[in-house]
UniProtKB/TrEMBL annotation, chain A:
PANTHER family: GLUTAMYL-TRNA(GLN) AMIDOTRANSFERASE SUBUNIT A, TRANSAMIDASE. This is Glutamyl-tRNA(Gln) amidotransferase subunit A. The keyword Transport does not apply. It catalyses: L-glutamyl-tRNA(Gln) + L-glutamine + ATP + H2O = L-glutaminyl-tRNA(Gln) + L-glutamate + ADP + phosphate + H(+). Belongs to the amidase family. GatA subfamily. Keywords: ATP-binding, Ligase, Nucleotide-binding, Protein biosynthesis, Transferase. GO terms for biological process: translation. It is an enzyme of class 6 (ligase). Allows the formation of correctly charged Gln-tRNA(Gln) through the transamidation of misacylated Glu-tRNA(Gln) in organisms which lack glutaminyl-tRNA synthetase. The reaction takes place in the presence of glutamine and ATP through an activated gamma-phospho-Glu-tRNA(Gln). One of its GO terms (molecular function) is glutaminyl-tRNA synthase (glutamine-hydrolyzing) activity. One of its GO terms (cellular component) is glutamyl-tRNA(Gln) amidotransferase complex. Its EC number is 6.3.5.7. Signal peptide: none annotated.
From TrEMBL, chain B:
Pfam families: GatB_N, GatB_Yqey. It catalyses: L-glutamyl-tRNA(Gln) + L-glutamine + ATP + H2O = L-glutaminyl-tRNA(Gln) + L-glutamate + ADP + phosphate + H(+); L-aspartyl-tRNA(Asn) + L-glutamine + ATP + H2O = L-asparaginyl-tRNA(Asn) + L-glutamate + ADP + phosphate + 2 H(+). NCBIfam families: gatB, PRK05477.1-2, PRK05477.1-3, PRK05477.1-4. SUPFAM superfamilies: GatB/YqeY motif, Glutamine synthetase/guanido kinase. It comes from Cellulomonas composti. Heterotrimer of A, B and C subunits. InterPro entries: Asn/Gln-tRNA_amidoTrfase_suB/E, Asn/Gln-tRNA_Trfase_suB/E_cat, Asn/Gln_amidotransferase, Asn/Gln_tRNA_amidoTrase-B-like, GatB, GatB_Yqey_C_2, Gln-tRNA_amidoTrfase_suB_CS, Gln_synth/guanido_kin_cat_dom. This is Aspartyl/glutamyl-tRNA(Asn/Gln) amidotransferase subunit B. SMART domains: GatB_Yqey. The lineage of its organism: Bacteria, Bacillati, Actinomycetota, Actinomycetes, Micrococcales. Residues 353-500 form the Asn/Gln amidotransferase domain. Belongs to the GatB/GatE family. GatB subfamily. Keywords: ATP-binding, Ligase, Nucleotide-binding, Protein biosynthesis, Transferase.
């Protein structure tokens, strides 16, 4: 295996800048790695060899010509398939979008292209980002690089697995209830859900508009900060985008790497530990807390009593918004079109046949739930009540952030489970996101980084949450903990992952 | 297309026994440069599906952004309708599947309209002023346009296939909803028509829309119900969709009153439903039944932040409102000194702008009215066209009247000049010159004609000389005849008296 694929994005960028390595070499190394291991991992739905190499060659030429380039120019990246890419297949993991070639780029893709990062391809995901295991993809499972018989998390299992399997140093994920953070946790990688409105949603195929947020998936905290700064910031095409500059995220990550957290108050959320959490996950969590304390942080316990209702509220708000967002997939304008096999071919019947065949079971389940929750006579009891719970959760956060600068919890209650294990039990599947969902409901940012290996030898995640628009705190605390943990481990956790068998 | 015969009760009979209640929803397409939620041009008549972006096509990943000008126009409309403007309001999604709605939901406003609780005073043809209460005015986006191909009627039924043009999808609309309009009695159709006409005039005055009915810039849905007496509870209503001319609004109300009366007379009950309007037959037919099955699952649009119009901005818009049609009519009537009936005729003839421009061109208001409401109104009627469509301009009328005022033309000549102008012979001056119509101001030819007339009737001169001025008129008549009307009668009179030495 080429060493180039083992480098962090920051380290690779440094070598590109110094001219030690060309972007074409780095891109080819990652494409080779994809060819070698993706048969087993299946992180990618589409690989854009030619486009990626063309971008790389262009960047090399511009660098050679002395052009001032973006810090990450020439560093390859993978993009979750829910993000619209002009002329490149974009399916959101669904049959209903099979063969669709978008005529435009998402804002964040535009920024990636403008900065000159070769896009390696599109990563696998649960259909329309509905799931916690990537098993709901219409195009087959992604496998966890730590154990190919296990799930890589979801919905962004493809992006997390790609990064963890060294197929890409950087990836884009989206997080509606944990789809960046939970896969990061179970694959030993780093993922950040920015503050709602920090990264433009223009060009993200919407799951739940009020919860969706795109963010970085990487192997280091600094790399996430670099990527977040690249894709974030105000976008006039997204009405919910925050019209202020981002805080200094990279600076915060570099500051954190000094391992000094003097004066930082860390709040441990009472409601996000204990019952339902795997003992090994909790053990790693508490060891991390000790490290933070040793670095000067003041650890306090905070209660967020309404988090107990977060999952229930989430599974009303998300399906309600999704039922409306997914209405446009009807076979009339783009994507799959199925005509009824018998009887008249009316618009209504084509819509029915297309949606019947194009959507998977989980998508149908949530559309039905959401349609019901928004129905006349039920709206107040379901959607209305859920929005009230959401307000209470926001108040819990506000109160907690009076007592602490950041809040922490295990990212997910367990390590990666076996493929198929929870496929027939939606409620068990939904419980994976119990610790990540509150941040989406409140719009606050969250980061997950590896806290070590649980008793089963699989990675566990540590979640840091910060107040809205204070994403820099995630990076400072995250980078500090990362450095302290790596001191203990003698290197990154991913170095302990088993070598994948390389296809020839 | 065969339609089952429908029983109708004579309108006058129907309103003698039932009290009609109406309600009107008017949609107006705003004349903004771009669409409600994206940067696609909001034009008219482009090639199908060219005025579109990923947003107006509802492509995956696309997001709406509110058009600030559309919000300003909506506030203008709200203020002109005496509405309160919301401190904060939201858009909502109205969910329903139909191919002309690209996202399969319409972004509209539901329980938080931008403007609410207003009224508009509507003047009927006889001058009666009727106040219509406005419940709300809200913003929304238009749908695309379906064309059904292959069927006999152009309707979806029987069509082989349908085409959708999304150029119209996303054009900003404001929908104005009245409260139930009661108390109009037999005049309900007239009130409905006058209300829609008043709104159309308002949209134009506010410069928020070209408001062209024939292009569908303004569309009305007409609700009608009947009740036994003005104190009875409201009856079940029907909603007749897309009644798109003033005349049709009147006819649709009239038809529904007659039809519903027949149903009720036969012991039936009215079904709450939407109905289609048929311009050709002047009738309505049943559309879809409104029931619980129609559930739009409204919820606040999460892709858009709430709109909170700054109060100072709203006041700025209020201060900048142009003079509204009713106020303008009152002002002009005062300036022109017209009697109420005269002004009403002018308004009903659509002559306000024409008279205003004619006055601006120098004519006295009375003279301007005389021309437009007299000779020209007759001509327009003969030709079956609108006054404004006559091939003559207010400036030309102003010039013509100027010739009369300066004594160069008398009334009779002026009418001949008018004929010439209408016949395309050019401006009044040109016609006067070409036709040689100017009054004869040289005394020579007049004296010759006078002498000739006096010679023909020798006793006349003696009569006049003896103080009997009666026959002077006859002499003047003879002179006018001899000069083909181009003489100034007053001057002729002077000369006659001079000649006979009276």
């Amino acid at each position: 295996m080429s060493d180039l694929t083992r480098l962090s994005a920051a380290a690779l960028a440094e070598r590109l800048r110094s001219g030690e390595v060309s972007s074409v070499e780095a891109t080819r190394a990652h494409l080779d790695r994809i060819a070698a291991v993706d048969g087993a991992v299946h992180a990618f739905l589409h690989v854009s060899d030619e486009d990626a190499l063309a971008t790389a060659a262009d960047i090399d030429a511009r660098r050679a010509a002395g052009e001032e380039l973006h810090l990450l120019a020439g560093v390859p990246i993978a993009v979750k398939d829910v993000v619209v890419t002009k002329g490149v297949p974009t399916t959101a993991g669904s049959r209903i979008l099979e063969g669709w070639l978008p005529p435009y780029d998402a804002t964040l893709v535009g920024r990636i292209k403008a900065a000159g990062l070769p896009i390696l391809g599109k990563t696998n995901m649960d259909e329309f980002a509905m799931g916690s295991s990537t098993e709901h993809s219409a195009y087959g499972n992604t496998h966890n690089p730590w154990d190919l018989t296990r799930i890589p998390g979801g919905s962004g299992g493809g992006s997390a697995a790609a990064v963890a399997a060294y197929e890409a140093p950087l990836a884009i994920g989206t997080d509606t209830g944990g789809s960046i953070r939970q896969p990061a946790a179970v694959t030993g990688s780093v993922g950040v859900k920015p503050t709602y409105g920090s990264v433009s949603r223009y060009g993200l195929i919407a799951l739940a508009s009020s919860l969706d947020q795109a963010g970085p998936v990487t192997r280091t905290v600094l790399d996430s900060a670099l990527l977040h700064e690249l894709i974030g910031g105000h976008d006039p095409l997204d009405s919910t985008s925050i019209a202020e500059p981002l805080p200094d995220l990279v600076g915060a990550a570099r500051l954190g790497a000094n391992r000094d957290l003097s004066g930082v108050r860390v709040g441990v959320i009472t409601e996000l530990q204990g019952e339902g959490y795997q003992p090994g996950v909790l053990a790693r969590f508490h060891e991390s807390l000790e490290l933070l304390q040793r670095a000067g942080a003041q650890v306090v316990e905070v209660s967020c009593p309404h988090f107990t209702y977060a999952l229930a509220a989430y599974y009303l708000i998300l399906p309600a918004e999704a039922s409306s967002n997914l209405a446009k997939f009807d076979g009339m304008r783009f994507g799959l079109r199925v005509e009824p096999s018998e009887g008249p071919v009316t618009a209504e019947r084509v819509m029915g046949a297309t949606r019947g065949q194009g959507f998977g079971d989980e998508v149908k389940r949530r559309i039905i739930l959401g349609t019901y929750a928004l129905s006349a006579g039920y709206y107040d009891a379901y959607y209305g009540s859920a929005q009230k719970v959401r307000t209470l959760i926001q108040r819990d956060f506000a109160a907690a952030f009076e007592q602490a600068d950041v809040l922490v919890s295990p990212t997910a209650p367990t390590t990666a489970f076996k493929l198929g294990e929870k496929l027939d039990d939606p409620l068990a599947m939904y419980l994976n996101d119990v610790a990540t969902i509150p941040a989406n409901l409140a719009g606050v940012p969250g980061l997950s980084l590896p806290s070590g290996l649980s008793d089963d030898g699989l990675p566990a995640g540590f979640q840091v949450l910060a107040p809205a628009k204070a994403d820099d705190r995630l990076y400072r605390v995250g980078a500090a903990l990362e450095a302290l943990l790596e001191d203990e481990w003698g290197g990154p956790l991913l170095a302990q992952a088993p070598e994948l068998e390389v296809a020839r | 297309m065969s339609r089952a015969t429908v029983d109708l009760v004579d309108y006058d009979e129907a309103v003698a026994r039932f009290d009609p209640v109406i309600g009107i929803e008017v949609h107006v397409e705003l004349g903004t440069r771009t669409k409600m939620f994206d940067g696609a041009p909001a034009g008219f008549g482009e090639e199908p599906n060219t005025s579109v972006t990923p947003v107006s096509l509802g492509l995956p990943g696309s997001l709406p952004v509110v058009n600030g000008t559309a919000v300003e126009y909506a506030i203008r409309i709200g203020l002109a309708l005496n509405c309160s403007i919301a401190q904060t309001c939201r858009f909502a999604r109205k969910n329903y599947f139909y191919p002309d709605v690209p996202k399969n939901f319409q972004t509209s406003q539901y329980d938080e309209p931008i403007a609410y609780d207003g009224y508009v005073d509507v003047e009927l043809e006889d001058g009666t002023v009727f106040r219509v209460e406005v419940e709300r005015a809200h913003m929304e986006e238009d749908a695309g346009k379906n064309t059904h191909v292959g069927g006999a009627t152009g309707r979806i039924h029987g069509a082989e296939y349908s085409l959708v043009d999304y150029n119209r999808a996303g054009i900003p609309l404001v929908e104005i909803v009245t409260r139930p309009i009661t108390g109009a009695g037999a005049r309900a159709p007239e009130v409905a028509r006058a209300y829609v006409q008043t709104l159309r005039d308002l949209f134009r005055a506010l410069e928020v829309s070209e408001a062209r009915m024939e292009r569908g810039n303004v569309r009305a849905d007409v609700n009608v119900s009947l009740r036994a007496t003005p104190t009875s509870p409201l009856g079940t209503r029907t909603e007749t969709k897309n009644v798109n001319s003033f005349r049709s609004v009147d006819r649709a109300v009239r038809y529904e009153v007659s039809r519903q009366a027949a149903v009720l007379d036969a012991g039936g009950s009215i079904v709450q439903e939407t109905r289609h309007w048929h311009e050709d037959t002047g009738s309505t037919t049943s559309g879809r039944v409104k029931s619980d099955a129609e559930d739009y699952r409204y919820f606040p649009e999460p892709d858009l932040v709430p709109i909170a119009p700054d109060r100072a901005w709203v006041e700025q818009i209020r201060a900048a409102l142009p003079e509204l049609p009713a106020a303008r009519r009152r002002r002009l009537q005062g300036e022109w000194g017209y009697a109420d009936a005269e002004m009403r005729d002018v308004v009903n003839a659509g002559a306000i702008e024409l008279i205003e421009a004619t006055v601006a061109a120098g004519a006295a208001p009375a003279a301007a009215r005389k021309w437009w409401m007299g000779e020209l109104a007759r001509t327009a009627k003969e030709r079956e066209i609108e006054l404004a469509d006559l091939p003559i301009t207010p400036a030309q009328i102003g010039a013509l009247q100027g010739l009369v005022d300066s004594g160069r033309l008398n009334d009779k000549l002026a009418r001949q000049v008018l004929e010439g102008v209408l016949a395309g012979e050019g401006d009044p001056d040109t016609v006067v010159a070409a036709r040689g119509l100017e009054i004869v101001s040289d005394d020579g030819p007049l004296l010759a004609a006078i002498d000739e007339a006096l010679a023909a009737q020798p006793d006349v001169a003696d009569k006049i000389r003896s103080g009997n001025l009666g026959p002077v008129g006859a002499v003047i008549g003879a002179v006018m005849k001899a000069t083909r009307g181009q003489a100034d009668a007053a001057r002729v009179r002077e000369l006659v008296l001079e000649r006979v030495g009276a």
